[in-house]
Specification:
CATH class: Alpha Beta
Number of helices: 14
Oligomer: single chain
Structural class: alpha/beta
Strand content: 15-25%
Largest sheet: 8 strands, mixed
CATH superfamily: Alkaline Phosphatase, subunit A
Number of domains: 1
């Protein structure tokens, strides 16, 4: 469906929040840095976004001005500039955030996988400690059948809209914000009770169908890029190598800039709606008590490595290096460059919210512990869900070691990773040897791969999930580096 801006009042609220947030950023050295200490947060707003590249946020170096609301929120937050998702598609990545365990431990490889019963989750652990738990999800793969509803008192997985190409169920950002505010109001009815509200936005996942006037804002900018006016072929299904995936193909358009501008427009639309959500928290007097965690599940390739408007098979920086920050009442904002994995969220949030040092078994480290910024995670990356080639590896400081398996043949490639979010192939036998041994040890520590548990699916659900499949062909390792 074509998305339209919902009402002048809603847009005005988002713009008001943006102005307030940007003013706060200007006076950061004053009121924000000196924000008074409060009791442990009684409200966790956990915002996750599908398919969001770091480089589209101003807080992470984006220069298009797409995200004034998120940038203002980041100015009040601890921003982690080197955060890695464990994989590059939704269900495994979100499951890792919610459990603090890697997809290989959970047996979650595909969108048809299901979270094993009795797996400790963030919602379940908070509920066990007396918190009330609410969720609003907007991606079909996160519906109740995924198992992620475990531990939630209320789990809103209604999808009233349909994607324009495949007709798959989805919920757009304005409706997601409406549902999120409704859950926040349910939470508020309990007086001073503690609440988790998880809100997952589907935008900016393709096909990119934000309001057309938004695309028009960014089209001239994208056409100025070197390859902006390039015309691409259309590939079948979700195949992104060398051409436009069929599910992204809109209005017989084949110009690169048309799709990049559409992606920019989706991010801008998303930011406006998150601004409206934040304005709603402010109007309800809840910001002082709210710990806000923001993260993307993975990114999107916009032509890097000749891979267009797709994700899922690869572990390139644009796909697995994601935006992540924590806004914590009473804690001064900061920027941190220590390497972080999304599996770190689970234990970090539980310790911050409960004050307990001993939480259920997980793989992550406490990002808010004393001197945590002097350490670093060693994120494990795995694209097990890829159809033809499996890739897995680790990130260690300034390098990334990726092993590619195709049948019985495997090979490793070393990348040097920069703070600008790019990676280049590097050759250093000593680093390769060390990281290869480190990867082997980590895989042993993970205890082997758990068997996959498939969701019980109707024929319609199975067909919908298969329509959400990922590319079959693979670019070279040289192309993956970009």
């Amino acid at each position: 469906m074509r998305r339209e801006d919902r009402s002048t009042a809603r847009v005005g609220a988002a713009r008001l929040w943006s102005s307030v947030g940007l003013l706060a950023a200007v006076v950061l050295a004053g009121p924000i840095a000196c924000r008074p200490e409060v009791d442990r947060p009684s409200l966790l707003i956990f915002l996750t976004v599908d398919t969001l590249r770091s480089d589209r946020l101003g807080a992470f170096g984006g220069d298009l001005g797409l995200t004034p609301n998120l940038d203002a929120l980041a100015e009040e937050s601890i921003v982690f500039t080197s955060t890695y998702a464990p994989t590059s598609f939704t269900l495994p990545s979100v499951s890792a955030m919610m459990t603090g365990r890697y997809p290989s431990e959970l047996g979650i490889w595909l969108n048809e996988s299901g979270l094993p019963d009795a797996t400790p989750t963030l919602a379940g652990e908070l509920k066990r400690r007396g918190w009330r738990t609410y969720a609003v999800v907007s991606n079909f793969v996160l519906r109740r059948g995924s198992g992620l509803d475990a531990g939630f008192d209320h789990y809103d997985d209604s999808f009233r809209d349909r994607e324009i190409v495949r007709g798959l169920p989805e919920r757009t950002a304005a409706d997601t914000t409406d549902a999120g505010l409704a859950m926040i109001d349910l939470c508020s009815e309990g007086g001073d009770s503690r609440c988790l509200v998880w809100i997952h936005y589907q935008d900016p996942h393709g096909p990119y169908t934000a309001p057309e006037e938004r695309r028009a804002r960014y089209l001239p900018i994208e056409r100025e890029r070197t390859d902006g006016r390039r015309m691409l072929p259309v590939n079948p299904g979700t195949e992104g190598l060398g051409g436009i995936p069929q599910y992204q193909y809109i209005d017989e358009q084949r110009e690169v800039a048309f799709y990049r501008a559409g992606y920019d427009a989706e991010v801008s639309y998303l930011d406006e709606q998150i601004g409206r959500l934040l304005a709603g928290l402010e109007e309800r007097g809840l910001m002082h008590a709210a710990l806000i965690a923001f993260a993307a599940d993975h990114g999107e390739s916009l032509g890097e490595g000749n891979y267009w408007f797709a994700h899922g098979d690869y572990l390139s920086e644009v796909l697995v290096r994601v935006p992540f920050f924590l806004r914590i009442p009473g804690r001064a904002p900061a920027r941190r460059s220590d390497v972080v994995s999304l599996v770190d969220l689970y234990g970090t949030l539980l310790r911050q919210l409960t004050g307990e040092s001993d939480v259920s078994e997980h793989r992550g480290r406490d990002l808010l512990a004393q001197a945590a910024e002097e350490g670093a995670s060693v994120p494990y990356l795995d694209a097990r869900g890829a159809r033809k080639e499996r890739r897995y590896g680790i990130v260690d400081g300034t390098h990334k070691w990726i092993v590619t398996e195709r049948g019985e043949v495997s090979s490793g490639t070393l990348f040097q990773v920069g703070q600008d979010g790019r990676a280049v192939i590097s050759e250093d036998p000593e680093i390769e040897r060390r990281m290869s041994e480190q990867l082997d040890q980590l895989k042993r520590d993970l205890g082997g791969e758990a068997p996959e548990i498939r969701q019980p699916l109707s024929d319609a659900d199975r067909e919908a999930l298969r329509a959400l499949g990922y590319a079959e062909e693979s670019p070279s390792v040289e192309e993956q580096a970009r």
